[in-house]
Amino acid sequence: MDQDFHRLLIDMAAEVHEAPEQAVRHITEYARTAVKGEDSGIMLAKAKGRVETFAGTSAPVEIAHDLQAELDEGPCLDAIRTGASSYLVVKLPDARWPRWSLRARDLGYRSTISARMEAAGRRFGSLNVYDTREVAFTRADLEVLELLASHAAVAYANAETNVNLRVALDSRNVIGQAQGVLMQVYDLDAETAFAYLRRISQTENVRLIEVAQELLRTRSLTGHPGLRPESAGP
């Protein structure tokens, strides 16, 4: 491992834990630098088999990713979906992905490598590097990309956790404010006020946060005539 790559790993590891959302986007640059590629991008796996480009170093990267989604074939897609976790393409077109590889070649790409982003058994997407040269990458480059992809997966998982925590904290604050309104207007204690909000949520099959948001917006209970605060307790 050369000194520059060692330093890159140290910088990236620190960013993964200190600023994970920023790290995920920066990893495309780290990857391109580490294997001396021309372009790089992250393809994310979404619900119902959909994919999207989370970050890319150029517009052609996004087009190459979109084409894989459109044609339902390509190395980045296969790295996410199949048993193989990475792919080395030394020359395009490639018979494994006949339609996509021809279109990718039209974009100017001649070789590419892809590695799955996976952490704790969950597949988040793939980290991919492209080049306009044939045989631009080696098996050693692919091993480097696999290492970076594992860092990218951890960063994305951390970023996702941070977002979920922020949402949870925001929800808790809104629900607490709604409780406060009920306590003030109806002279309720905190437990009874929360029980009232929960009863509306369960009876009307509406999320608790939405009930709280409505109460704060309208400052009114007219939308729930059959459920009065005084009946909310156990």
From TrEMBL:
Alphabetical UniProt keywords: Kinase, Transcription, Transcription regulation, Transferase
Residue stretches making up the ANTAR domain: 155-216
InterPro entries to which the protein is assigned, alphabetical: ANTAR (IPR005561), CheY-like_superfamily (IPR011006), GAF (IPR003018), GAF-like_dom_sf (IPR029016), GAF_ANTAR (IPR012074), WH-like_DNA-bd_sf (IPR036388)
Sequence intervals crossing the membrane: none
Record-linked Gene3D superfamilies: 3.30.450.40, Winged helix-like DNA-binding domain superfamily/Winged helix DNA-binding domain (1.10.10.10)
Name this protein carries in UniProt: GAF and ANTAR domain-containing protein
Source species: Aeromicrobium senzhongii
Lineage per the UniProt record: Bacteria, Bacillati, Actinomycetota, Actinomycetes, Propionibacteriales
